Amino acid sequence: MDKYIIDGGVPLRGEYRIRGAKNSVLPIMAATVCKAGVYELYDCPRIGDVFAMEEILQSLGAGTRWKDSCIVIDSRNISESKISKEMMQGMRSSVFLLGSLLTRCGEACIYKPGGCRIGKRPIDIHINGLDELGFEIETLGEEVRCKGRCCGGTVTLPYPSVGATENLIMAALGGRHDTIIKNCATEPEIVDFASFLKTCGFQVHGAGSDTIFIKGGECLHRQDTMYFIMEDRIEAATYMMAVAGTGGKATFRNIRPEVLKSVINVLERMGTSIKSYENIMEVSAPRKLKSPGLVVTQPYPGFPTDCQPQLMTLLTCAEGLCTIREEIFESRFTHKKELVKMGANIEICGKNAIIKGVSFLSGTEVAALDLRGGAALTLAGLMAQGRSEIKHIEHISRGYEDFDKGIRSLGGLIERKKDEEQEKKNKPVC
Q1: Which residue of 31, 49, 159, 260 shows the fewest CB atoms closer than 10 Å?
Q2: pTM for the full model?
Q3: Residues assigned a catalytic role
Q4: Is 22-215 CATH 3.65.10.10?
Q5: Conformation bin of residue 271: beta by default, left when phi > 0, alpha when psi is -120 to 50
């Protein structure tokens, strides 16, 4: 296991290019199962969740190889329709294989997925939606068995779940009749996902709106498909907040301001200057930020829950009082305890986190408990006075490629080192 060693108090400055989106590439990788072929996915981030999905695809019979930032997936020899419990529990996004396996094989056997401990994330919406589309479903404890072909028709989601939207789209691709999904998620990653499917020859319309239409029947599929993954707006927001929190100035490339409007709005209310043109954004921050007032996490285009922990870090040293209301996950304040160790003044009242800005944070030893919470603690280390140690950074590596290198490229004093103490604890006793 590794850890970050950070010497804080240095403003971040320079240029950084945003990588491909984690939340886009994972369902796209799953979708390569839908139809036999060779797929080249460019600007694919080398992160833990991508490697985990790659391993699952290999277990199903797919071949994979890397060419720099491109992953090549050969799904022509997929013959397996069951995913092991161990693989499923390693990553939440493994659930995407349910819909793609049903389209490819007419059956699927999976286990309820794992992932970050940020609250209850049942797959009931996925299962109920598949049931409405005519699939036979059997649940045995943690095991979920499905079979059949999509019967088409109209499904209305009770909540605009991104994962359920993508899963039902994939399941509908194998149907002979048209399918309409209402109350869909409208995230940019859904649009990117649908764009990939269109490149493959599938007819998917309406992505980006709350109603998506999937044409049934034969796919106009090409044997080989090349696709460029969209930029990661959560990575972009994280780096923007790192610059803002340290009072720095940086230029970001491969970034679209229109998909970050809610984040930009909050940062500007805090006193950060943001200028953008085409796919370039310049972020400049004062030494002291101010409170933006109430911030509520919501489905897109609202403020993203995946940016809430990073924002909380910024607010710890902002002038005034701020409230964050978490409306997506009920257990996404686990990073609060670690921030308090660094001197933050935070009170949790149900869905609300009330943050009163302090003069400064103090470097200390903290532990990442989940992906975005780990990123938030890294930002706290950059903002703090003195040295910080961030343990359990394997969580961070699930969603950020070479996070420490990216921060160093902007002048941050951060090192990645072996956590020898943790390795001793984990070493089995003979």
Answers
A1: 159
A2: 0.95
A3: 116
A4: yes
A5: left
The two structure tokens encoding residue 391: 């343990």
As a CATH number, domain 2-19+231-418 is: 3.65.10.10
Round to whole Å and give the CA distance between 104 and 197: 14
CA-angle at 50, arms to 44 and 56, nearest 5°: 130
What element of type H or E holds 329? none
Contact 219, 198 (CB under 8 A): no
Q: Which positions ≥6 away from 142 have C-beta within 8 Å?
A: 85, 111, 112
Mind listing the pLDDT tens digit for each residue in 197-209? 999 999 999 999 9
Domain map (residue ranges) of the chain: 2-19+231-418, 22-215
Checking if the pLDDT of 221 tops 90, the result is: no
Supply 400's token pair: 């950020």
Tell me: the pLDDT tens digits for 166-179? Answer: 999 999 999 999 99
Q: Do residues 171 and 98 lie in contact, with contact meaning Cβ atoms separated by under 8 Å?
A: yes
State the Cα angle at 323 between 318 and 324, rounded to 5°. 105
Q: Is the peptide bond before 301 cis (omega within 30 degrees of 0)?
A: yes
